[in-house]
Amino acid sequence: MDGAQAPPVVEAVGIAKRFGPTVALADGNLSVRAGETHALVGRNGAGKSTLVGVLTGLHRADAGEVRFAGKPAPAPGDRAAWRERVACVYQRPSVVRELTVAENLFLGRQPRGRFGLLSPGRLRREAAELLEAWAVPVSPDLAARDLTVEQRQLVEIAGALSLGARFVILDEPTAQLEAKAINRLFDRLRDLQQQGVTFLFISHHLPEIYEICQRVTVFRDARHIVTAPVAELSHDKLVEAMIGEARGLVQVGADRPSVSADAEKVLELSGVGVPGFVESVDLSVRRGEIVGVAGSAASGKRQLAEAIAGLRARSGEVRVTGRVIKAGQVPAALRGGVGYLPGDRNVDGFVPGLSVAENATMTIAGKLGPRGFVLPKVRDGRANTMIADLDVHTAGPHQPVGELSGGNAQKVVMARALASDPEVLVLVQPTAGVDVRSKESLLGAVDEQTRSRRGALLVSDELDDLRVCDRVVVMVGGRVVGEHPRGWNEAELVAEIEGIGESGV
Amino acid sequence: MSPVSESTTVSTEVPTEPEAPARPTPLTGRPANRLRLAKLRDLALIPPIIALLVYGYTLKPDIFLTHSYLVDSVLKYQAVLAMVVLAEALVLIVGKFDLSLESIVGIAPAVAIFLVVGNTSVLGAPWPTWTVLPVALVFGGLIGVFNGLLIVRFKLSAFIVTLAMLIFLRGLQLTLVGGSTISNLAKRVPVIDYLGNVRILTLPLSIWIVVVLFAVGIVVLGYTRVGRSLYAVGGNPDAARAAGIRVERVIWMTLVVAGLLAALAGLMMSAQLASVAANQGEGMIFMVFAAAVIGGISLDGGKGSLFGALCGVVLLGLIRSVLTLAQVAPDQIEAVYGLVILVALVLARLTSGKAQD
């Protein structure tokens, strides 16, 4: 499928990889042309991460061949040779937090001065030159821990380029960035592309692929499905390739009944403030209503949700079905009828070593037997119901959650939030980092659960999430600045979230 | 994303795909296997224990497998270690450290017994003999409370706090016991006599206490809300907190329980020797950690079972007695013992397949 010009920067043919009994990659093919930005998409578990592992030399493929610029890949142990050919910027930082940017850039290959000792001056100077050469606006003296996600990514890219690699894999680089930062990142990527750098761009966010990439490769079920120029693959075709059938993106909740004005208020916030983040928020959620809270990362929306869940100290009053909830205590919020889904499941969503059943019932451990006893039968029974209700793909209630894919782990976290049969669900970024199908079923669960029984406060900056909501309020700088009923205009909402014409933060 | 997690969704959600291997329907087949596997991991130390029993038998067929040898020369001396391992296992599961437990083994009985038989009049001493048990337990518990205060409230590192506490309590004990030994306690302190001499069904009371407390511990950890919360807190404290578990309270409570258990272990040790030595319990903590880790308790928290820890204790006891029976020279036995422990750790790592940190 390639033109007959220069050999592709990287070419993988028929890659297969098993981990124990499980096939992570059955037939992985990829060919990236020099100078292009190539998208790699697929649902969680499609084999993308495994392919990246093989391309970067971290995994040794069981079968198949990797070639860089037409030549066979280096020996598996020759890390230096791999690093000259390919670099990967992962979602998780791979910098040493306590060292400076300069030290990180030259880790293990620091320039030496007199007597073969390290020379801090030269280190600083060369780091500054390197950052300058790739136009990374970061001081070499800054500690890596003080870098923003955006700066950290650029520093890691610069470091990779300085090693000689002209092929960089970006693993969901935009997942933790705000819209403005994403635009800046894309500008930088285009610049680098002009200078001859080739990118493999992995993202769940399909519009980005049309914006920045020239060609796209789709993986599904551990196999290569299609490679095509993005211009020739419509949005629907792309989604179809990813999930195996034609289907628009998430359309959950389009048929939600309107909420009557006299429905009971399940959640009422009056003058809620969180020191340093939220000024004073008044908001209410009725039974049967999903209220979206949108805003940038600095808007305080997430802190507001955490305060309602009892994880943060707050001022003001929170009532659930009329009863006042004591501030700053998770058990009090839980008892009062708040179900909470945290914003980053890997941080405080689940305990990876514990089973699906234990994680899903963690909020109701006191109700699984008499006198504080937990009866495994009762627990597994409850868990099986939840697994079925939320369509969690797992080997069973005893499988550790750490072994599940992102989407399924998130469903377990959703189960945990729903387990206590709450009056109001407080959800933060419920579909972050999950694939299209999981997104649909998670949002479907929110929709279904809130039709009659409860209400939900859905904190997110994903437009797909917000589309499910009956109305969306926008926070800027710790305050609610606007409200949009269902059917809002995308551009208007985004403009308001980004605080155009506002001081913001 | 880990390779394993890939496997769970691969080909599971697209039933229309002909080449997709059939996914196991949830709730059949695999869960049972997995459960069996988890149980197996718990039983990983049983084969080496049996091997050691057989080996000991071939060394000294006439005495090794006799009731009196196994009970009085092997298990009795492991009872104290077992108690401290129980305490440390709880602390490790909740994700913390407690090095000071070995000094509680010394100081708690020392204080309690000193107040009863010591040559002093502070605090209205001599106290009546019945106070030995409660005073020792309360003292052990209070040390747990204080450790908890520094670790939970002031957010200090558990390692350093309990290390400092260990050094402090050692010094306190030296001051109290005066470099010598409070000896000849037999027939003077009832609880010491009970713990040292009473036998039920031919087994010493101390062994029964260990068996009962481990049984209670296994039930609590496996089948109660509080017990399961230890694993949740040790596995991911942030997730536990978000799920409504009072993380600080659970940690604090665990440290106090560990102090109580270590104090009881100290009384058991004093009872065996009918004395309180100035260095009682010294150096024990290394054996405690070795037994816990061999038994599958993770130093990272959130992993391991009490049954496994108990197996670790029994294994260490058998290794020591087999070394003695094999007539390893006394001045070499510690070195050999240390080597064997290293080998056991490597084997435990290989059989469990999980990294120990």
UniProtKB/TrEMBL annotation, chain A:
Residues 10-246, 261-502 form the ABC transporter domain. Keywords: ATP-binding, Nucleotide-binding, Repeat, Transport. The keyword Manganese does not apply. Gene3D superfamilies: P-loop containing nucleotide triphosphate hydrolases. GO terms for molecular function: ATP binding. It comes from the Bacteria. This is Sugar ABC transporter ATP-binding protein. It comes from Actinokineospora xionganensis. The lineage of its organism: Bacteria, Bacillati, Actinomycetota, Actinomycetes, Pseudonocardiales.
